[in-house]
Amino acid sequence: MEENQCEIPHFNLKGEDLESFLGPLEAKVLETMWSLPKKPATVRDCYEVLNSKSKIAYTSVMSTMDRLHSKGFLQRSIERGKGGLYYVYWPTMSEEEFSEKAVRQVLNSLVSKFGKGMVASAFAEEVEKK
Known about the structure:
Number of domains: 2
Order of helices and strands: HHHEEHH
Strand order of the largest sheet: 1-2
Oligomer: single chain
Distance between the termini: 34 Å
CATH class of the largest domain: Mainly Alpha
CATH topology of the largest domain: Arc Repressor Mutant, subunit A
Strand content: 5-15%
Largest sheet: 2 strands, antiparallel
Structural class: alpha+beta
Helix content: 40-55%
Shape: elongated
Radius of gyration: 18 Å
Number of strands: 2
CATH architecture of the largest domain: Orthogonal Bundle
């Protein structure tokens, strides 16, 4: 995969998994894109998986994939098919790469706000508790 320049937009302390960093639908779409065996995938491919789990509008999936592309989490290209032109999408990073990037951005944010010493000390104390 190519080097990704996207920034994780925020960190929600109360969020679960990807929802700590992305909106709920963004998280579901990105998780679905990682799980699809066919890459690149169409909006319809992603929509069918999500819609099989709970009802969702095709346009919601389409606009969310466009937003994830704008944020740098999905890459896309234009394909030609029976119905005309359409986009195909693929993740710009693996789930593991996302996790590593997210952890590093959170740590860098904490260090810039509170300093290396406090972050390292708090981190060491938390690791000892576990």
